[in-house]
Amino acid sequence: SYSMLGSNIIYNGAIDLSELKLTLLANSEKRLLLIFFGNIPEYLYNEIKGYSNCSIIEAEISNDLAEKLSKSDRVILFSQIGKSDAKTYQQVKELIKLKQKVLLQEVLI
Question: How far is CA 7 from CA 44, 45, 88, in A?
Answer without folding.
Answer: 22, 24, 19
